[in-house]
Amino acid sequence: MLQRIQSLLLLLSAIALGVFLSTNTWTGGTEGNEILVNPYQIVQTKGGLAAFKKEIFYVAVLAAIAIAVGVFTIFQYKNRVRQMLFVALNSLLIGAAVAVSVYHVKYDAMTLEGAGEGKFEIGLYAGFAALALNWLANRFIKKDEKMVKDADRMR
After folding, report:
1. Which end of the chain is less congested by CB atoms within 10 angstroms, N or C?
2. 3-state secondary structure of 75
3. What is the pLDDT of residue 155?
4. Structure pTM?
């Protein structure tokens, strides 16, 4: 049923991925030399002009596919085994998007001249939140499936 907790968790996971897509993952640099990483690109600006730009749109594509799979999974409540399969696929997609983002921060953004310490932004935390919510949804789906099997055994 749509009112089950796992449906709400899957919806919250999709919303968290929307936040991941719409915010920065990492910011660094000094004043006048800013570096931004988001799911679409890595941009270094010096004095207001772009000095370095690398397109990483495939991270956004992974996250968008994960949103679509998550929303589709919500409506698979009649077949919990299939729903668990789609949640597992969604976990792989979300994990890949977050991992590739962290990779680009570590090996592309932090190696740029003047990157400094930098800090992770809300986008990365939203990606991890989406992964955790997806995992919780899977736990509740498994719990429901076990409850149905136990009830069938009692008949």
Report:
1. C
2. coil
3. 56
4. 0.90
